[in-house]
Give the backbone structure.
Amino acid sequence: MTQSVIKYPIVKPYLPNRDMYQQSVEGIFNRNWLTNNGPLVQELEQNLAMHLGVEHLLLVANGTLALQVAYAALGIKGKVLTTPFSFAATASSLCWDSIEPVFIDVNEQSLNICAQQCHDYLKNTLTHKKREQGDVSAILGVHVFGNPCEVELLEKIAEQANIKVVYDAAHAFATKYANRSVLHYGDASTLSLHATKLFHSVEGGAIIFKHKADYDKAKQLINFGFNSASYPELVGINAKMSEFHAAMGLNVLTNVEHITAQRALLAATYRAELNGSVSMQQWQEHSDEVGAYMPILLKTEQQLSYVMGELLAEGIQTRRYFYPSLSTVPAYGMNGDTPIANDISNRVLCLPMYTDLQVNDVIHIASVLKQVLSRYNA
Ligand SMILES: *Cc1c(COP(=O)(O)O)cnc(C)c1O
């Protein structure tokens, strides 16, 4: 069999105007200030905070370090309740810091961590007992595919249990909830600015803190724990963003209105074209779909394999996002019984989604998919 030519990759990094980027690099060469909170990092920090309408935004080297620095700044340790339906880094960032992930099942419609099950878990373990070392110290939610978690409910549950809430908001750069950025929720929300994400700086990440004191601490942590007198007051790490990365971020940010509008249009087109043919994630009320990803849910893993193969033969690349369910991975401890997430992981498939994709491409992909589905059913 001949290797099929990929006409529609699953993802394609967005590149800004080449001359503009080169101009930014020219400036870096002229200043010879390459990293360590340089002027472009400061400018990107300010512009991003303004664009998102948030305060206390700290840029870091990537989305995984964003999570780890957030845990350290907030004093998260022991156990953390989290979702098994996410990218590996959600769980691995915890394990790397010797924090034990306790996997709570997801809601079948939203595909996000189930707040009610967090509540039940905490009620069973925390009532009538003073919290001890090693107990649950936080809930780590993921706005999966950009769909907001039950933010108000999770916050209330965490407050009652006197624990923190962190959101891995790697998919939620463009997500609004009740007319403002969903990044307002939680003691901290983290972004990944990796090349494949909706908004990116090649490699990069950001943390948005609720409280200024946590932001100040994190700012010290990402630079080896040095205080203003360059004394290593805290056990820190190196999580700084470089000027070259910030330059990419600033240039991509120039086009962010186009990126978000195009993604939303593509997602809406997929939805309209596929409505009735295949199951899809149910989006949260008071929020609009952002087109960070385009997941569909097949009926069985067998159907998924067939669809993947047939689409690839037509030059359409798909990816099993997110598979496997993180609660089934031995390296992450397998603490938690999550039948819904395990089932979803086995039959979820992401379709091509990137800013350069056109509405006509989406109509074509959807029509090929519908033909493939009817052939399978025949
Ligand atoms: C991409 C991603 C990360 C990791 O971000 P990096 O910038 O690649 O380190 C973490 N969590 C989720 C949910 C992601 O999709």
The chain has a mean pLDDT of 96.
